[in-house]
Amino acid sequence: MTGGKLMQLERLLLHLKLDGWCVVEDVIPANQIKHVRQSVEAAVAEHRNPAAPSGIGHLPGMINFDQSFAPFLADENFLALVGAMLGHHPRISFTTGTINYPGNERGGWHADWPFNQNNAGHIPAPYPDATVHLTTLWMLAPFTEENGGTLLVPGSHRSPNNPTGDNGVDPLAPYPTEVNACGPAGSVLVLDSRLWHATAPNRSHQPRTSVVVRYAPWWLNVEVLRPGSDERRRLSEETGRKENAVPSLPASVFADLPAPVQPLFRHWVARPE
Question: Whole-model pTM?
Answer without folding.
Answer: 0.96
